[in-house]
Amino acid sequence: MKIILDFLPIVLFFLTYNQAEKRADEAAALATDWFGFLVAGGAVGAKEAPVLLATVVVILATFAQVLYLKLRGQKVDTMLWVSLGLVTVMGGATIYFHNDTFIKWKPSVLYWVMAAAFWLSPILANKNLLKLMMGEQVDLPAFAWRNLNLAWIAFFSFMGVLNLWVAYHYDTSTWVSFKSFGGMGLMFVFMVAQGFYLTRHLKSPDGE
């Protein structure tokens, strides 16, 4: 259930953009009628309507994620709060200024915030975030936790750069597809590689 909840805003962003792009004029009219008061000038053109509507949807979906967890009495992860803040501020700027640059930067900023968290926690708090999250389920030697922490720092840093490379070298439609599926695919590959590393260094029950 959690993984569905985590990826729901991304899927809704893609579906909204895809459908709005196919009917750009209708999307522009809808965006102007319903969200014109949020936009500089009060009118939305056919070119920017798909990403504007998709941005509205992803903001609402992220708010819904947080609300759902709060109503169920579950903890809202720090990264979800950060994501909500970023998507609200940068998505809001995309909507108001009719400029998709802001929402394109959002994934990169989030990736780099996560990389910074993994990097700074051992330095400032002498804590390994990955061990804090997985330590109760997985028993690894100290060097393995350090290596995994470095791997996550490198991965998130790389993903932040890659997102911007795609954003600035390809059209918005290609970036939306990459954000929705390319990022998830690379995350899956990384997690599989991490799984192989974990199995190599898991401690046996007798501690050997």
Describe the structure.
- The protein has 208 residues and is an all-alpha fold.
- Helices cover 79% and strands 0% of the residues.
- The chain contains 8 helices and no strands.
- Helix 1 runs antiparallel to helix 8, helix 4 (78-97) runs antiparallel to helix 5 and helix 5 (101-125) runs antiparallel to helix 7.
- The mean pLDDT is 91.
Class based on secondary structure composition and strand pairing: mainly alpha
Proportion in β-strands: under 5%
Number of strands: 0
Instruction: Calculate the terminal CA-CA distance, rounded to whole Å.
Output: 36 Å
Helix and strand run: HHHHHHHH
CA-based gyration radius: 20 Å
Number of helices: 8
What's the quick description here?
With 208 residues, the chain is mainly alpha-helical.
Protein traits:
about 210 residues, mainly alpha, 8 helices, about 80% helix, about 0% strand
Topology summary:
Blueprint: H1 2-22, H2 24-35, H3 49-71, H4 78-97, H5 101-125, H6 129-134, H7 142-169, H8 172-201
Helix pairs in contact: 1-3, 1-8, 2-3, 3-4, 4-5, 5-7, 7-8
